[in-house]
Amino acid sequence: MAANEIEHLIRLMGRLPGLGPRSARRAALSLMKHPDTLLRPLIEALGTCRDAISICSTCGNLDSHDPCSVCADRDRDRDVVCVVQEVEDLWAMDRSGSYRGLFHILGGTLSALDGRHPEHLRITALLERVEKDGIGEVILALGATVDGQTTAHYLGERLRPLACRVTRLAYGLPVGGELNYLDQGTLDAAMKARQLLA
Ligand SMILES: [Zn+2]
């Protein structure tokens, strides 16, 4: 039985995504064992992030500036906005280097089951932004899940009256993937999204 203080730490860490009770315990113990190289720098980093990081009022990204470095980057194509669910999706998309436009973070997907309705997402902010900034294209880059697609459909309907093109990412084969390892849903989607070769 660990001291109450450590148990409290373990419970808190166990609430982090990806950390179950066992890994939370291991992580907490590791912090206790390495006060100078791990615990203290972590405390400092947490404090710095708490004080410095805020949500970009334009796109919903997390950064130490508002507007964030993505929104403020004048080299980006400012005519295109890519709509993603979460901040980590923006980071992944940006890391890929395949897209150099602007972003808009919804903050999740619609879900009747989980009680997430349009007013819980940054949808009004998106519509206002598209209209005010005269955005030419909105790319819906949402997950290929039921909730992701329900949300994409809903956004398509809401964006339709505005003078912008609405596109979504294609579904299909993962690069380097073998056909016989794919699940039925991916194969179906890839078949439906097939393209003319020449
Ligand atoms: Zn931003």
Q: How would you describe this structure in keywords?
A:
binds zinc ion; globular; Dna Topoisomerase Vi A Subunit, Chain: A, domain 2; alpha/beta; 198 residues; 4-stranded parallel beta sheet
What does this structure look like?
This protein has a domain at 75-198: Dna Topoisomerase Vi A Subunit, Chain: A, domain 2 (3-Layer(aba) Sandwich). Helices cover 45% and strands 13% of the residues. The chain is built from eight helices and six strands; from the N terminus they run αααββαβαβαβαβα. The protein has helices spanning 4-14, 21-33, 35-52, 69-72, 87-96, 123-133, 146-159, 184-192; strands at residues 54-55, 62-63, 77-84, 101-105, 137-140, 165-168. It has a four-stranded parallel beta sheet. The protein has a two-stranded antiparallel sheet with strand order 1-2. Helix 1 (4-14) packs across helix 2. The longest helix is centred in the first third of the chain and has 18 residues, at 35-52. The mean pLDDT is 94.
**Low-confidence runs (pLDDT<50, min 5 residues)?**
none
Number of helices: 8
Average predicted confidence as pLDDT: 94
Distance between the termini: 68 Å
What compounds are bound to the protein? zinc ion
Return the string of H and E elements.
Answer: HHHEEHEHEHEHEH
What is Rg? 21 Å
**Order of adjacent strands in the largest pleated sheet:** 4-3-5-6
Morphology: globular
Question: What's the multimeric state?
Answer: single chain
Helix/sheet category: alpha/beta
- Tally of strands: 6
Query: What fold name goes in the CATH topology slot of the domain at 75-198?
Result: Dna Topoisomerase Vi A Subunit, Chain: A, domain 2
Strand content: 5-15%
Instruction: Identify the CATH architecture of the domain at 75-198.
Output: 3-Layer(aba) Sandwich
Question: What share of residues is helical?
Answer: 40-55%
Largest sheet: 4 strands, parallel
CATH class annotation of the domain at 75-198: Alpha Beta
